[in-house]
Design a protein that fits this description.
Layout (H helix, E strand, L loop, with lengths): L6 H7 L5 H17 L6 H11 L6 H8 L3 H13 L3 E5 L7 E5 L1 H21 L5 H25 L1
Antiparallel strand pairs: 1-2
């Protein structure tokens, strides 16, 4: 590092190098701790919620939505299926594709987890205004969009 290069300039090179990973880790840790009594992890509860809201219904779509590898989602879906919280059925039109569906037991587990997660979120957002939350969401969405376009242009 050159002496003339400021620490701020160096920090700006790796966007969120320490702050964002720490934030995600702390949020995940807080949710995991709170959700322990339900037998669900934060990621598992989030997958159940995505299936319940019909945001995604295949391992590929769930992976894309959650920013995870398909293999990680597949293992998680298999665990949730063994617990009876999800079921996987073959797509009738394309037998290669698996459709992931939340079960009644999964909906019940989710209903147990949501108030717990809500309390964690309420505590995490304490002192942050609605306007600040919207700004944070917009900034994160813009950075992700910039990176999506950057990656697409390099392919």
């Amino acid at each position: 590092m050159q002496k003339s290069t400021s620490k701020a300039a160096i920090r700006s090179v790796f966007v969120g190098r320490l702050l964002l990973p720490k934030l995600v880790a702390r949020l995940t840790e807080a949710h995991d701790h709170a959700l322990a009594s339900t037998g669900l992890t934060t990621k598992q509860a989030s997958i159940l919620l995505s299936c319940d809201l019909q945001e995604a219904n295949t391992p590929v779509d769930l992976a894309r939505l959650h920013g995870l590898e398909v293999s990680s989602i597949t293992r998680m879906v298999e665990r949730l299926e063994r617990k009876g919280l999800l079921k996987c059925v073959r797509n009738r039109e394309d037998r290669r594709q698996v459709i992931v569906q939340i079960t009644r037991k999964g909906k019940d587990a989710l209903q147990q987890a949501l108030p717990i997660a809500s309390r964690v979120a309420h505590h995490a957002w304490k002192g942050v205004t609605k306007k600040e939350r919207v700004v944070l969401e917009k900034i994160a969405a813009r950075v992700m969009s910039n990176l999506d376009h950057s990656v697409a242009s390099h392919n």
